[in-house]
Amino acid sequence: MYKTIAAYLFLHKKCTLPGIGTLIIVSRSAETDFLNTRIQSPSQSIEFISSGKESVFSTEFLAISEYIRKKLAEERILLINGIGTFTQFDEGKYDFFPITIDPVFIPDVEAIRVIRQEELHPILEADQAIYATELPAYFNEKPSLIDLWWVRAIIMAVIGFLLMLIYFYQRGLNLFGNMGS
User: Does 160 or 97 have the greater pLDDT score?
Assistant: First the structure.
């Protein structure tokens, strides 16, 4: 029966127990600890919001909540495996002590800055991978004839324009089309 509460809580991140309170899973993101040079893993914790008898009733766990309240009235303490321990300290007043969720699959890691002086890392320049030792020579090299395509395009445009001038000089320029000679 308690496994149902744990499964529902971890699946939906919230479980309302009518007359007792609400269990909520709160997630904490990963944090950097510069002082200790560590990156703390993301973690989750369970929080309890006590509601007492004036809470809005939810029918999801009504029977289980009644059973939990009867057990707490008799024994004053109730352990729910995987979630934590409920205690009753006054009539209708409940407290909750959650277990810590073990971050066994996501441990903290060391964050040490590593600077390697002698390592070569490629830098992508257009379609070429260039290393840091080659950069000064790469930027100081003179462009080859292949890189001067625009010069050839200008020369061809000038030749075409000169051929048009020769044609119109020999044949004349007729603005009205083929209207006779």
Answer: 160
